[in-house]
Amino acid sequence: MRNPLFDAIYFNNNGYTPIWLMRQAGRYLPEYRQLRAKAGSFLSLCKNVELATAVTLQPLQRFSLDAAIMFSDILVVPEAMGLELDFIANEGPVFKQRITNLNDVVKLDNSQIEVKLDYVFQLIKSCKQQLKPNIPLIGFSGSPFTLACYMLEGRSSKDYLEVKRWVYSNSMALEQLLLKLSDAIITYLKKQVDAGVDALMLFDSWGGVLTPSAYQEYSLKYINKIVSALKQYTLGKNLPLIVFTKGGSNWLQQIAQIQPDVIGLDWTIDIGVARKIITNKIALQGNLDPMILAVGDRASLKREAMQIIDNYKLANNGDISGLVFNLGHGININTKPDNVAYLVDFIHEYSKQ
User: Fold this and answer.
1) What's the whole-model pTM score?
2) Would you say residue 353 has pLDDT above 80?
3) Is 275 annotated in the active site?
4) List 16, 28, 32, 150, catalytic entry
5) Is 98 considered catalytic here?
6) CATH at 102
7) What DSSP assignment string belongs to 197-256?
8) Which of 19, 37, 215, 341 could form a disulfide with 325 if both were Cys (CB 3.0 to 4.6 A apart)?
9) pLDDT digits over 82-91, tens only?
């Protein structure tokens, strides 16, 4: 059975532009909130295979999406390496003890990734048993730099003071942390492949806080290490690798040089401009402003969605091949589910024209 997501990624669309949405399984859905309450905590929900499977499938039961993304969190990797993690209401993720020096880095244990994250691999197997054959399951991880940001700050940050301190004053220790994280992520994603995912995505959510040279040195270099290892591991499997750097629009040429199968775009660049910059066979994913689903009406939603498809086609000789429609970041908690339903159906219908 043909898969529209893979058709787009491998440049042989002959139907419509596929659509899935970052963070499509989450707090904006009332059915998700019910399961979250049943689980007792966010981490408990992630680690309960039955409930996490149900959450993964919820958006597919409500909307005509073209892919599922497993329900988990990027911070399960540092937790599996020994950092105690909690999710606090109105604060988000918090590590009980953040990384403060090289000795803390040395203490991190990445040898138990396969064991401690087995619940993720069981989730993948469970989802694959229940998804339709033409709906791929996307696995993921945070990038080394993004995970390091949370580990060094201890939580989300507005100014990244500790991260920048390590970049400018403790770079050797930072490199040791990023290497250790890279090895853990490679192991983690290989096991996701073994469990049955159909595609993989690296979320470099905070790479955009770096200067151009620091981005190359502390983010892209390690993403390249991971992409290279996974390409070798998945050789001949047609398992696409997606790389998304939020705030990375100025570095698209450099990202393209590491040859992911797909580059995710945030909303700060015209997708037509991006298509002209990336002229080789790399698909693009994006890049609707997620806030429009929370505050926009159908007229504005239609206008913005049309503009993305039209600008892409104009830059791509009238062809929709190589485009996966998505948001420029994750769905906002205030998103209206009716807007999501309208967007998904509109993208399918409009791109068919």
Assistant:
1) 0.96
2) no
3) no
4) 150
5) no
6) 3.20.20.210
7) -SEEEEEETTGGGS-HHHHIIIIIHHHHHHHHHHHHHTTTS---EEEEETT-GGGHHHHH
8) 19
9) 999 888 777 7
Count of domains forming the chain: 1
Is position 118 annotated as part of the catalytic site?
no
Q: Take residue 110 and report the two structure tokens written for it.
A: 């990445």
Q: What pLDDT score does 1 carry?
A: 59
Sheet harboring 137-142: ordered strands across?
68-69, 137-142, 199-204, 241-245, 262-264, 283-288, 323-327
Considering the candidates 7, 16, 23, 188, report the single residue annotated as catalytic: 23
Active site residue 62: no
Residue 314: give the domain boundaries.
4-352
- Give 168's contacts (C-beta < 8 A, 6+ positions apart): none
| Structure-token pair, residue 5 | 């997501």
Beta bridge pairs of residue 326: 287
Q: Taking the CB of residue 168, how many other CB atoms lie within 10 A of it?
A: 10
Q: Which amino acid is at 61?
A: Q
